[in-house]
Amino acid sequence: MVVNNNLLEIYKKYREGRLAHAYLIETNNISKCMKDLKELVKALNCPSEFNENCNNCNLCNLIEKNNLPSLITIEPDGTSIKKSQIEDLKISFETKPIYSKYNIYIIKNAEKLNASSANAMLKFVEEPTDGILGFFITTNKDVMIPTIKSRCQSLVIDYESNNLLEKLNISKEEFDDYVIDIRNYLNQIFVNDIINHKMQILTKYSERKQIEIMFKLIFEIYYNHFLKISKKNYAKELTDIINIKDNEKEIIRKLNIITKFLQDLSYNVNIELLLDKFVIEMRKNDG
Ligand SMILES: [Zn+2]
After folding, report:
1. Where are the domains of the chain?
2. How far is the CA of 40 from the centre of ligand 1 (A)?
3. Which 8-state DSSP code applies to residue 105?
4. How far is the C-alpha of 185 from the C-alpha of 211, rounded, in Å?
5. pLDDT (tens digit, 9 = 90+) per residue, 196-250?
6. Contact indicator for 154, 26 with CB cutoff of 8 Å
7. 41 C-alpha to ligand 1 centroid (Å)
8. Distance from Cα 232 to the centre of ligand 1, integer Å
9. For the chain, which end, N or C, has fewer CB atoms within 10 Å of the first or last residue's CB respectively?
10. CATH class of 5-157
11. Of 265, 263, 258, which is closest to residue 282 (Cα–Cα)?
12. Angstrom distance (rounded) from CA 244 to CA 187
């Protein structure tokens, strides 16, 4: 299937002749969504029966290369989408498309429409013109201007993430910061006094959510060491964080302890108690 499942709904509506004039798509991955949207735009316009990778026909080819004049993508110019960008769009869409069925605009990062550009945009969504189709793409529709939001058909497209930073919702800087603390922590729990490093962590990470991220990262580190000794694909940048000499059995034992910790953490168990328990468990087989 070439049209993404969520976008397939739109395609079906098109086949039934019931397309809305504007769609608001909230997604956790704008670039993937843009790619999928491009396939949808092809499917909507392709003069032959659209099939997988129809870049053969002239129209699909133009869409693929971003060269179709009746398909206009607007993205933020600096920190916002400017009114002049919308004015240009209006002028372009005054004429009916020559090659394709629709004039299509895509507003990427639509939450970046400022008050005046959103106002200029209203014409399109308030007095829809036949043959003009719009897509507003955003990561957070809650921050979008309500007048636009209320006039669009809304849908949500969530993509699974393979990227650890995306999965944990942290920046590279935050990740690096966690790594330093994790390295210290894992090095210390096997030698030093329990209370010290417990306090060290609790002082720095006062929120449960932060402790959760830290231990999810610890899990990933151990898990990648496990993949490494199992001769499977592993992330070297994670195994390089700390040298773990445990054998497979011991790593599995520790992965179970970390998993249990994360479970207990989600049940609102007292964090100090959990951290004490964690250290005791982790040390058990050590020496
Ligand atoms: Zn085609």
Report:
1. 5-157, 164-283
2. 11
3. E
4. 12
5. 678 888 988 988 999 999 999 999 999 999 999 998 888 888 999 999 999 999 9
6. yes
7. 10
8. 41
9. C
10. alpha beta
11. 258
12. 10
